[in-house]
Amino acid sequence: MTDDTREDSREDDAAEERHASWLELFFDLVVVAGIGALAHLLHEDSTAGGVGLYAVAFTAFWLVWACFTTYGNLRAARTQVATMLVGMAALAVMTASVFAIDEHGGAFAVAYVVGRFVASRPWNRGTVVVDLPVVQAGIGIVPWVVSWWFVGTAQHVLWAVGLGLDLMLVLSSSRGRMVADMQRRLERVRAGRDGRRSRRGRGRIADRDIPATLDVAEADLPHLAERMSLFMLIVLGESLIQAIDGAADAVWGRPLAVTAAGVFVLVVGLWAASVQRGSAGVALLAPGLLAPRLAWVAHLVTTGAVATLAAVVATFTAAPQSVVSAHDRTLVVVALAVYGAAGVAVHLGVALTRPPARSAVRRASLVRAACVGLPITLAVGAALLHRDGTAERFVWELAGGVVLVLVADGLASGRLGRRSPGRPGHQGAVDSSSS
Fold it and tell me: Is residue 141 within 8 Å of 162, Cβ to Cβ?
């Protein structure tokens, strides 16, 4: 193949690259409302139980979104409008229920089950979704159905159990095992059908219901990366909306200006680290280094941490000179620490799993781990030391840590002679070759 042919092939691939459809963008409008509602839940109950319920509700909301995002990603032009609209309706009911979740917990659980059920329907017996296996699995939904007959803490615990089962499935499954299990199941079904045909003389089960071959559904990687980034943008955008809302009722002056600028710098820094220079919500993660199944888990952890961080920090504009409460300080510090730890863990995992032949990737991943870990550690340490600091000062300690991540990455990029990951037009974020 000549250089001209290769260039033409790359141009054709770029021309055919999918982007989020109007239907998917319309679907995301409900996600915008949902993120705002979940932030309200975080503010309403400052106890450990309230934070735990927020984590469960966020994970449930995210998982329904992920299932329908996977559906749209895999079906592409064959995506059914009715299916996506039902998903929107389910998320809308979950969003409305959050504002009085103790009273409307049953509606939240019913909407979750309906959303998961509808997202699982489009796949036939011979299709295996390897990148997000919970789309086709029903075991995690069972505790949610049982929770319909409970209220309060018992109901919330059942939700957590169901989500835990789903996340365990994602973490413990592998492409090879999933394909082999589905193939054996398909062969058993066909054998049972052949047995019935031999006993009855004719088949009662239509051949079209039992495919002869297995269809392995794999993600459109650039499109999936874009959808994940859009979710992170929704999280960050909602935090700016809340910050603006708080500023509208505050006393306008220097403290508000300084605090608002700090919130803006923090949000922009998180966007630059997680979206512009990162992928799957992970700071500075270069494209093509994380398998889709693992990218989903990383996305849940990082978006959950950023959503918590942004929801709390956004309220600082309402009272910029007030001392940050111990509860809010703890939430923000833990969320930032989780965000940084997730980035470090992913980069170290990439470095440790790459063969010696890819030493450049290993070295770059180790450098990125340091670029994320050290500044975030400094920011967390500063936030812990100044326990009596005002919101005005606290937000800049956080923003400074994120800015240092970007500065460190810029310096390291020059030394390593590499392009910054996630540059515009470079959307791939996951690697289908990893299991």
Answer: yes
Q: Which domain holds residue 172?
A: 19-176
Residues 122 and 225 in one domain: no
**3-43 per-position pLDDT tens digit:** 444 344 444 444 467 889 999 999 999 999 999 899 888 88
Tally the domains of the chain. Answer: 2
Based on DSSP, count helices (H) and strands (E) in the chain, helices before strands: 14, 2
Task: Return the closest-CA partner of residue 228 out of 354, 14, 69, 434.
Answer: 69
Task: Give yes or no: residues 396 and 277 share one domain.
Answer: yes
What is the distance between the alpha carbons of residues 99 and 103, in angstroms, rounded to a whole number?
9
| pLDDT per residue as tens digits for the range 120-165 | 887 666 677 878 888 888 899 999 999 999 999 999 999 999 999 9
218 in Cβ contact with 432 (< 8 Å) = yes
How many Cβ atoms sit within 10 Å of the Cβ of residue 413?
19
Q: CB 318: neighbour CB atoms within 10 A?
A: 19
**356-377 confidence digits (pLDDT tens):** 767 888 888 999 999 999 999 9
Of 85 and 17, which is predicted with more confidence?
85
Q: Is there a domain that residue 281 lies in?
A: yes
For residues 283 and 255, the answer to whether their CB atoms sit within 8 Å is no
